[in-house]
């Protein structure tokens, strides 16, 4: 649809959007992180707010300039988090008020079980150090498990698979495994997805049908995501 036709088609919708990458501490000054810039997730939050939605943006670590616009938007409330566990708590605190939850954050799959409460020194760690990594809670699985019938849960899948058919197969399996209403599939790689201004997304619904694709700015991708959300919500 044309940008102008979208108007305030999300007026009255309450959205929770997560964005950015979580960081899992190794010690007070070191962490395990990922390359998420938060740009796509913040664009999703801003697109919704511009179209009339009331948005809570749960922001993990993002590029520094990315959050400024969101913080300034009258219909976006920003909550900052650090770890996967903090993000999980923030989601739990805000999900009850949400009509739509979009999990665009890059959540760490593992946290460091043997993290140190003081800065590790080479004196104690020597030539080799073993980090004991344990799985984090799957926030999306929790959301889907507690979902109200009127709630729409959207997941993201960042995949490095370059073959389009294999990428779609993988995405459909992930959509089923996650049980989300909509999965936004994002091909990423060493030079794609993360820091770039452009993005390609495909949207897969509960019937594993591709209900849209978009290549464009992260804002255009965000608007296409909300179009797909309205499509799947309109069916119930
Ligand atoms: N996600 C989550 N909690 C986690 C890990 C991921 O809520 N602990 C969410 C992400 O925000 C995303 C979706 O689950 O919306 C898919 O994330 P992804 O990393 O693609 O899926 P995983 O199940 O972690 O599978 P894998 O990393 O092995 O591909
Ligand atoms: Ca993962």
From TrEMBL:
Q: Which cofactor does it need?
A: FMN; Mg(2+)
The keyword rRNA processing appears for this protein: no
* Superkingdom assignment: Bacteria
Q: Outline the extent of the DNA/pantothenate metabolism flavoprotein C-terminal domain.
A: 10-230
Task: Spell out the reaction equation it catalyses.
Answer: (R)-4'-phosphopantothenate + L-cysteine + CTP = N-[(R)-4-phosphopantothenoyl]-L-cysteine + CMP + diphosphate + H(+); N-[(R)-4-phosphopantothenoyl]-L-cysteine + H(+) = (R)-4'-phosphopantetheine + CO2
Any one Gene Ontology molecular-function term assigned to this protein's record: phosphopantothenoylcysteine decarboxylase activity
Which keywords does the record carry? Answer: Decarboxylase, Flavoprotein, FMN, Ligase, Lyase, Magnesium, Metal-binding, Multifunctional enzyme
EC number(s) on file: 4.1.1.36, 6.3.2.5
- Show the segment(s) annotated as Phosphopantothenate--cysteine ligase: 15-236
Query: Which residues hold CTP?
Result: 109, 119, 156, 174, 178
Q: In which pathway does it act?
A: Cofactor biosynthesis; coenzyme A biosynthesis; CoA from (R)-pantothenate: step 2/5; Cofactor biosynthesis; coenzyme A biosynthesis; CoA from (R)-pantothenate: step 3/5
- Co-factor binding comment: Binds 1 FMN per subunit.
Q: Which family does it belong to?
A: In the N-terminal section; belongs to the HFCD (homo-oligomeric flavin containing Cys decarboxylase) superfamily. In the C-terminal section; belongs to the PPC synthetase family.
Please give the function described in this protein's UniProt entry. Catalyzes two sequential steps in the biosynthesis of coenzyme A. In the first step cysteine is conjugated to 4'-phosphopantothenate to form 4-phosphopantothenoylcysteine. In the second step the latter compound is decarboxylated to form 4'-phosphopantotheine.
Query: What protein name applies here?
Result: Coenzyme A biosynthesis bifunctional protein CoaBC
According to its UniProt entry, this protein's organism is: Brooklawnia cerclae
Q: Provide the gene name from the record.
A: coaBC
Shown stretch of the complete protein: 187 to 422 of 422
């Amino acid at each position: 649809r044309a940008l102008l036709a979208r108007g305030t088609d999300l007026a009255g919708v309450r959205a929770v959007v997560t964005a950015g990458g979580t960081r899992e501490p190794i010690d007070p000054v070191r962490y395990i992180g990922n390359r998420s810039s938060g740009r796509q997730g913040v664009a999703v939050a801003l697109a919704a707010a511009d179209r009339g939605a009331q948005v809570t943006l749960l922001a993990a670590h993002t590029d520094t300039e990315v959050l400024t616009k969101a913080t300034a938007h009258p219909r976006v409330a920003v909550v900052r988090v650090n770890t996967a566990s903090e993000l999980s708590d923030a989601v739990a605190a805000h999900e009850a008020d949400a009509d739509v939850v979009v999990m665009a954050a890059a959540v760490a799959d593992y946290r460091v079980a043997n993290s140190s409460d003081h800065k590790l020194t080479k004196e104690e760690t020597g030539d080799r150090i073993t980090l004991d990594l344990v799985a984090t809670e799957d926030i999306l699985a929790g959301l889907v498990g507690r979902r109200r019938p009127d709630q729409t849960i959207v997941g993201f899948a960042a995949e490095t698979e370059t073959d389009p058919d294999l990428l779609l197969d993988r995405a459909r399996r992930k959509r089923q495994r996650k049980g989300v209403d909509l999965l936004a599939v994002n091909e990423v790689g060493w030079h794609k997805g993360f820091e770039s201004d452009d993005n390609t997304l495909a949207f897969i619904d509960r019937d594993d049908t591709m209900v849209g694709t978009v290549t464009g700015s992260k804002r255009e991708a965000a608007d296409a995501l909300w179009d797909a959300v309205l499509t799947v919500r309109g069916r119930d």
